Structure formats: structure tokens, C-alpha cells
Amino acid sequence: MTTATLSRAKIKQAEREDARERLLTHYLKEGQTVYTSVKSVSSSGMSRTMSLYVVDGDRIQNITYYAAQALDWPLVEKNGSRVLRVGGCGMDMGFHTVYTLARVLFNGSVEGDAGYALRHEWL
Asked: What is the DSSP letter of 39?
């Protein structure tokens, strides 16, 4: 089936599934730490942009693109790099992002609350 015959919703779903598979295959395992770094905060304080990273052996991997696709959250260009836009305030938005990513990736495949399948740390 070509992309010309797929609806936008099906294309979006296929992209989310591909990102989920790539994250689970190449970058993330249960219990792994995801590092977040805030790049900017809106003037109202109601949204921020951030990047997500994992350490793979002796390499630091930027997983922001795949996380944005898996979460279906906006990926924006900010100061020359792609960053994830996270809306909201009043809580630890880095933790919220990693918790939500873990729920998307591990829901049904781990015992207990899948949101805690990944650990979070700030850079």
C-alpha cells in the first residue's frame, strides 16, 4: 500500500508505531534512565521545549525525534535543533515526559505501573 492511499490518521499511526519500535529495539530497555534538558520556556511559563537523551555504552544518544513521534507531541525547530514542545506547568515536566513515554512504550508489557518502567534525570 502506498502512502497516497493512506489517510493522514493511518500515516500518523504508522509513524507512532515505527518510532515505538525503534525506541524499544535500539535505545530503551526497562529500567533505563532517560535524561532531559530544557532548552527554552515560553514567556507565559505554560510550555517548554526539551531534548531527551539516553546513554548507550560510551555514547550519548538523542532520542527526541523518536520520542516526539511516539508521544505524538510537537517537534519544533528551536535555536538550530529539533526539540520536543511540552505544554503545561506546575509539575516536573521532564518527569511527566519520561513517565508518559514509558506508558506509551511499556503499557501491558511490564508488571505494575508502566510509567515507572523508565527512570528520569535532568541534565
From this structure: E
